[in-house]
Every structure is written in C-alpha cells, then in structure tokens.
C-alpha cells in the first residue's frame, strides 16, 4: 500500500526533485503538484503534504494542512524555533496531526551541525558563515539558523561575540553571529568556526549537487507518515 503526497512548491528546484523521487519510489505516489499560487484545497486528495514553497506562504500551507488533519513535512526555509513557536496554539488544537520541520535534507550537513554542537561545549568563540547561490531569497539560511540554535542550547547563551552591534558582524541568532554570502558559482556551503586559545577549528560542509538531498527527503517523508506532534530537524529522523 502506497502513501499519496501533495507537494506544495513543486516547480522549485527542491520541489521538482521531490516530485521525481516520489514518482520513482515504491511506497509513495504523487497526488497533487501545487505551485505557490495554487488553491490549497488540492492537497485534500493526498494522505500527507510536503511544503517546499516560499517563506511568505509556508505558514498558510501548514495552517491549512493541519486544520484539515493532514500530516505535513515542511522543507521551506525560514522556520526558526521562534517562528515555529508562533504556531503552538494550532498544534495544540490538533495534537493528532504530525508536523516535521527539516531545514536541510543533506545527511552531511545534518551530521556536521551535530558535530558543531559537540565542539561548541569546548569553545567560547563561535561564528557561522553560510554561502548560497544568488537565487536564494532568504538569509540567513534555515540551516544556519538551526545550527546557531543548536550551539546556543549547549552554550547556554554565553557565546563570545564582541562588537555584535556593528552591522558587519553579521546577524545574531541566539547570540551566535551568522554571516550570509549570496554569489554565483556555488550551491551551498556552511562553515562553523570555533576559536580557542592558540587554535581554531572549522566544521565545513559543501554541497555540490542537489542529489545530496535525496536520501534525507525520502527518510523525512517516511517519518512524516504516522507521525503525531511536532518534530524539528533531520537529526531527529536519523536518531542522532
């Protein structure tokens, strides 16, 4: 028995890849392919929903899916823990519905962020530099935000970030300076730089192909089926 999926944002790079993966899989079928401007009622024909749309409409997609009892995988960028918290009343009203937020579907990126959180317990100075192509509309990236939040959790908010009020020092995410680059010639790259007495350590991850997202996309879809409640991060899917 297969699970049918409605993909919102199906014409984007990630959405197109997800649709292809679903069509090639043995346990999923593609019920609907929605653009960001499509009528959301189209998702009602599916068992679950995958939202890989735009930050500006993602909230309405989640609200519609949850209200209509549809489990949803959210891969749209921009969902910080603070923004997710604004939807807590919605989730509380529908505890039986599963919502999985995944800021990055790359296995390597997820493991790198996990390693960064471990290193953060040993270094006072931590900064994140993330680079994406010129077509990425949001900054900092959802991956960088999630990484900074992980670091802040283990650092208890005591990251050393001097002169943080200066614009050139980047945006503070939970006390961690995050710097965003947008330029041609690159898909995605993130460096988490740690500084200590007489040394630095950098955890670096480079994405060279969208194919790196395939395993994470399918693992996340499978986790969404039968999920209840809210889960955040591919690391939870992988049980890191």
Give a nutshell description of this structure.
The chain has 240 residues and is of the alpha/beta class.
| Topology-level CATH name of the largest domain | Rossmann fold
- Poorly predicted runs are none
Helix content: 25-40%
CATH H level of the largest domain: which superfamily? NAD(P)-binding Rossmann-like Domain
Q: Order of strands across the widest beta sheet?
A: 2-1-3-4-5-11
Number of strands: 11
Structural class: alpha/beta
- On the 0 to 100 scale, the average pLDDT is 96
The CATH architecture of the largest domain comes to 3-Layer(aba) Sandwich
| Rg from Cα | 18 Å
Proportion of beta-strand residues: 25-35%
Return the domain count: 2
Order of helices and strands: EHEEHEHHEHEHEEEEHEH
The total count of helices amounts to 8
Shape by Cα distribution: globular
Oligomer: single chain
Distance between the termini: 29 Å
Describe this entry's structure for a reader.
The chain has about 240 residues and is α/β, with parallel strands linked by helices. It folds into two domains: about 5-105 and about 210-235, Rossmann fold (3-Layer(aba) Sandwich); about 105-210, Dihydrodipicolinate Reductase, domain 2. The protein has eight helices and eleven strands. It has helices spanning about 15-25, 55-65, 80-85, 90-95, 105-120, 140-155, 215-225, 235, and strands spanning about 5-10, 30-35, 50, 70-75, 100, 125-130, 170-175, 175-180, 190-195, 200-205, 230. The strands form two sheets. Strands 2-1-3-4-5-11 form a six-stranded parallel beta sheet, with helices on both faces. Helix 2 (about 55-65) links the parallel strand 3 (about 50) and strand 4. The longest helix has 14 residues, at about 140-155. The relative contact order is 0.17.
